[in-house]
């Protein structure tokens, strides 16, 4: 009996390492594809190879810049599309997955940015040099952007850290993933993430008017 148990333990030890998925792990901040010569072995809980394509615009009317992130992940990281609007800064991300060793996910297409206002707004700002920003302005949310978010990110690239800060409108899945849907893997460190519901301007104006009327009545 002891010999049988020993054999089972040895067999389990031999099988376990091979059961982990192998995936590409790379980040390219300037292109829409990247690869490595040797895939990494994923943690046993990571069942999918995840690719996230990100499109950013840093100024109104500016060029669209593409970047790609590939890493090990889970099923909940798959098939996510996010939208972020921080005034001059716009970002859309889309993720796809596959679940075989060193596989390539299906082609990722970035959807067109929705432009119809949804009646909500957030205070927004963007910094491309530090992970905080203070000069905020009202930004109208569009499409499915029903949340106000703020966060800072440290990006590790080529041995040099880059920092950005984003405050603005975003889709709910940016909150659900704590921005993981857009900044995935060891190259990114998200700090100070906060999320709240978008505000309706009409409500703010109504409250301001009501407060004014009450003060006038109080002092008349």
Automatic annotation (TrEMBL):
One of its GO terms (molecular function) is phospholipase A2 inhibitor activity. It comes from the Eukaryota. SUPFAM superfamilies: Snake toxin-like (SSF57302). Residues 21-117, 120-204 form the UPAR/Ly6 domain. The keyword Thylakoid does not apply. Its main location: secreted. It holds the Pfam family UPAR_LY6. One of its GO terms (cellular component) is extracellular region. Keywords: Phospholipase A2 inhibitor, Secreted, Signal. Residues 1-20 form the signal peptide. The keyword Signal applies. InterPro entries: CNF-like_PLA2_Inhibitor (IPR050918), LY6_UPA_recep-like (IPR016054), Snake_toxin-like_sf (IPR045860). CDD domains: TFP_LU_ECD_PINLYP_rpt2. It is found in: Secreted. This is Phospholipase A2 inhibitor and Ly6/PLAUR domain-containing protein-like. It comes from Geotrypetes seraphini. The lineage of its organism: Eukaryota, Metazoa, Chordata, Craniata, Vertebrata.
């Amino acid at each position: 009996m002891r010999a049988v148990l020993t054999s089972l333990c040895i067999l389990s030890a031999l099988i376990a390492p091979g059961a982990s998925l192998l995936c590409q792990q790379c980040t390219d901040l300037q292109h829409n594809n990247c690869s490595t010569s040797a895939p990494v072995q994923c943690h046993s809980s990571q069942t999918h190879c995840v690719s996230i394509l990100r499109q950013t615009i840093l100024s109104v009317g500016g060029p669209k810049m593409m970047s790609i992130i590939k890493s090990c992940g889970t099923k909940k990281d798959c098939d996510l599309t996010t939208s972020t609007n921080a005034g001059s800064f716009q970002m859309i991300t889309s993720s796809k997955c596959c679940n075989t060793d060193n596989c390539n996910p299906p082609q990722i297409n970035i959807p067109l940015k929705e432009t119809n206002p949804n009646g909500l707004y957030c205070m927004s700002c963007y910094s491309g040099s530090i992970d905080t920003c203070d000069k905020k302005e009202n930004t109208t949310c569009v499409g499915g952007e029903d949340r106000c978010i703020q966060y800072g990110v440290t990006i590790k690239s080529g041995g040099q850290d880059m920092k950005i800060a984003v405050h603005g409108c975003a889709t709910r899945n940016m909150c659900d993933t704590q921005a993981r849907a857009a900044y995935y893997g060891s190259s990114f460190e998200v700090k100070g993430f906060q999320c709240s519901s978008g505000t309706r301007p009409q409500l703010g104006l109504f409250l301001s008017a009501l407060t004014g009327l009450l003060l006038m009545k109080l002092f008349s």
